Structures are given as C-alpha cells and as structure tokens.
Amino acid sequence: MTALPTVDQLRADLPAVLKRFRAGKTFAFSFGDGRPEAVVLTYDEFEDLGGETKFDLGDTVLEPTQLAAELPRLVAVLRAGAVPAPQVWGEQGEPEAVVLSTAQYRHLRGDDEPPPGVTDDPTHRTYTTEPLPDSRPFDLDEIAELMGPEAVQDLEDLRRNDRPDA
Question: What are phi and psi of 39, to 5 degrees?
C-alpha cells in the first residue's frame, strides 16, 4: 500500500499488514476515505512511545477478522468527533498492532495539531530545517571554548602538530 488506503482496502488487507510489520517492511501509516482518518502502527512502536501510559486500552486483543468487522464503526465514530480507545489487534491474542485516530497518534508522538482546516497525515511529517533568524555559524574555536579549557588546549596542540616545521 503506497497511497492512502481506504477503510475497505485496509479491512481486506489486515493479515498482510501484520506480515509486513513482522518483516519490518512497513511503518506506521494512515488510512481513511479521501483523507487520513486513523493510523495503524506496530504494538512495539506504540509501547516505545509510551502508549500504554497515555491511553486506556483494556484487555482485549482483536483478531484481524474482528478488527475488519469493527473498522467501519470505529471510523464512523471518529468522523462523528468522538475519540474511542485505541484498538489493539494481532493474531492468537498477541498484541502486534494498534489502530488509533490521527489526533491520538499525534498525541502519542508529541506532535502539534495542524491548523484548523488543514488536512495532515501525521505519519508523513515534515519539519522546518531553515536556520532561525538570529542563527549564526560557529567556528571551531568557539566550539572548543564551549567544551572547556582542555578542548581549547587539544585544538591548539593539533594545530601546532599540523604546521610544517618552519
């Protein structure tokens, strides 16, 4: 799935999603009908980002067939503005993946919400990389000074050793 999958496409592809997650061949991705409405990510990523402490999950791990049946209702609830608990799913009761709203995914990652009216896929974020207006380049001497007197001395020694004998 390279383009944004629809709810129905995802419902039909859940076992393959788990297979790609297990093989490390895909990362968190959004899905929805025409715009990002929810996100699927591995349970490992969810845990690594502190999801278990940020959300109340309950004890149920849905099987892919159960999640496929649940997804239309879940997305309808999201479209209505409600925020249901993230859905943990996997095979044989093993938590392998999580479905959550795009807002919940942003909260999980600590990202800002987009401005009102802006469609945003939180799994494809870009960040401003331009220098700030008051930024300026550092030279090597300033960096050594920040590191302390030993670094300044080491830099002087290196320069002395690099000079050809005069």
Answer: -130, 145
